[in-house]
Every structure is written in structure tokens, then in C-alpha cells.
Amino acid sequence: DQQVKQNSPSLSVQEGRISILNCDYTNSMFDYFLWYKKYPAEGPTFLISISSIKDKNEDGRFTVFLNKSAKHLSLHIVPSQPGDSAVYFCAANSGAGSYQLTFGKGTKLSVIP
Amino acid sequence: NAGVTQTPKFQVLKTGQSMTLQCAQDMNHNSMYWYRQDPGMGLRLIYYSASEGTTDKGEVPNGYNVSRLNKREFSLRLESAAPSQTSVYFCASTLSGINYEQYFGPGTRLTVT
What we know:
The complex is a heterodimer.
Chain A: E1 4-5, E2 10-14, E3 19-25, E4 32-38, E5 45-51, E6 56-59, E7 62-67, E8 72-77, E9 86-93, E10 102-103, E11 107-112
Parallel strand pairs in A: 2-11
Antiparallel strand pairs in A: 1-3, 3-8, 4-5, 4-9, 6-7, 7-8, 9-10, 9-11
Chain B: E1 4-7, E2 10-13, E3 19-25, E4 31-37, E5 43-49, E6 56-57, E7 64-68, E8 74-78, E9 87-94, E10 103-104, E11 108-112
Parallel strand pairs in B: 2-11
Antiparallel strand pairs in B: 1-3, 3-8, 4-5, 4-9, 5-6, 7-8, 9-10, 9-11
């Protein structure tokens, strides 16, 4: 039973346009969400996060939106750059002292110059 | 400051052989984790150590053992490798369980023939 779902395995976007990566979750106990970026042959690196008490968090070109009622979050990258081409993982934590992150399967973003 | 380091980077084993994957962090983090990533899958937690002296099973612990040698080091052992354990293994650490942003090592690519 997949608790964190990234239904788009891949996404292609033109350089300079907006990239929108989506993530859905089923576990209502999740209250903290993270996005990780992964280049080939490297470990994932933390990108941005959001707590369930917020509905938006921005960091430069990256914005994460959380819709708790729909159990949906999205990562917006504006403007997209070729260096953003990577696999993006959505992850969730249920808080309450839980040490575990639950990851989605990832979305491969290709930014075309 | 090297962050999280893993050795080896690559390993080929025959079915039934044993080996230990090493992980070390120099960020004075309390919690450490071992994940595996398979093609088309997200990261799945094998074992974690919330703090020095403790270890707990994650989502996919069968066939693995771990040792939290000290605060810096967390090793993963395959006692009798199986082809199903062919995967990329990532070690991660975080300051504590309530800091959800985990920092990952570069990974170990393991092939079991």
C-alpha cells in the first residue's frame, strides 16, 4: 500500500517555464512533507519542506503548496533551468517522534534548453 | 566537513557471500538510517538508529543486520547475499528524529549474482 504517490514518472519542461511536480498521500497522520532532488550516481539532497500548519513555503525559485483536505502537495519551480533536470522525490513524516520518512517513487524532470 | 560518507561505492557479490557496508557522518548527528533504492521505486527504509546504542527495523529489514558502532558510524551487514538484494544503498543522518531533513551519502551500488 503506497502511502506517498507520485503519479507522473517523468515530466519535460522548456527552460524558463514553470515545472509543477505533484504528490498525493493517503496517511492522514502525515504532518511534515519534504522534497528531495537526486542527480544520477549521487545521494538525494534536501530541497524544501512544509509543515501541515502551513499551505505554502517558498525558497527562491522553489515553492511547495500543501492542500491538506485533498491530501495533495505540489512543487513549483519557476523559472526552470537545465540544472534542475533530476529525479524529485516527495517524502512525508508522521511526526509524533517518528523517525521514518516515507518516500514516493519519484518524478524525473527534464528541462529542455 | 565531508558530511555522510559511504564505502564501498560499488560491490559485486556472489549469492551466499557476506559483506558490510560502512557509513560515517561528521555532522554530530544523532540519528542514522539505511535505505535501499530499486529501479522505479522510492527509497525504502531498511533500518535506522534513533541514537547511539539503539537500532530499529524499517520497512524492509529482512536479510540485513545493522550496528551503530558509535555516534559517527552505522554499518549494514548482509550475512548471506541474495540476488533480490541487488540495489543501491543509501545511508542518511539527521540531527535528531524531530529534525526531518535527512542528509544522504553518495550511495553504494551492490550487485548480487
